[in-house]
Design a protein that fits this description.
Strand content: under 5%
Structural class: mainly alpha
Helix content: over 70%
Radius of gyration: 39 Å
Amino acid sequence: MADDITIDYSLNPSGYLSGAQAVSQANTGLQQSFGSMLTTGTLASKAMDAITPKRASLAGFGLMAQAAANTEQSLSGLAATATVTGVNYGKLGATIHQLARDLPLGDKAARDTVTQFTQMGVAGEGTEKKIAALATTTLKLAGATGEGPAALADGMTNLARATGNTSLDPVRFTKLADSLTTVSAQSGASATSILSFSKNIAPMAQSAGIGATGVLGISSAFARLGEDGIGATTAVNKMLTDMSRAV
């Protein structure tokens, strides 16, 4: 007969329960530790992101560097022109700074316009004030019409010379710009298109006794209608030729 097995029902389970509780607490602590590590990792990642330039930031730095390079190149070109012509580079630099501060078109527009006039046969020793006056008039004209100063400077210079202001006297230049602003506003034609047409008819208009303001008026009428091509120019020049012969 098998030995009898005796079960002690009075066994105290508190030891098992306390052990299980300790294991549970250990698991909870471990989970909290992992959570803390993840949080710390996220914070560290954010900190690295904060001190590491993003792609947009790098692109911005690139644009700033390119702008600085363009400025340096423009100024070097101006310096070279000043050396050749004898105009004072320091005074031109002061003019650019003044124009950029006084007018709303910015430093680049001021620098480019001043440089443009130094390359139009205006620059020479003692011409700094003249260049400043011509650039100021052109930038104000650009602000009034909303058109680019480069095209306006070129068109104004060509028309001024074609109508007798070969030396680009600043006073006459400003009066021409004022007339152009008025004619453009009244006709609805762009100042640039008026200047483009005027350049082509100005020589014949002068022969017919028509001054700069009259040239602007005729040009604005054709520019307003969109008839500012070669055909229209040829027709107007023929009319002006007939007028000059009749005088």
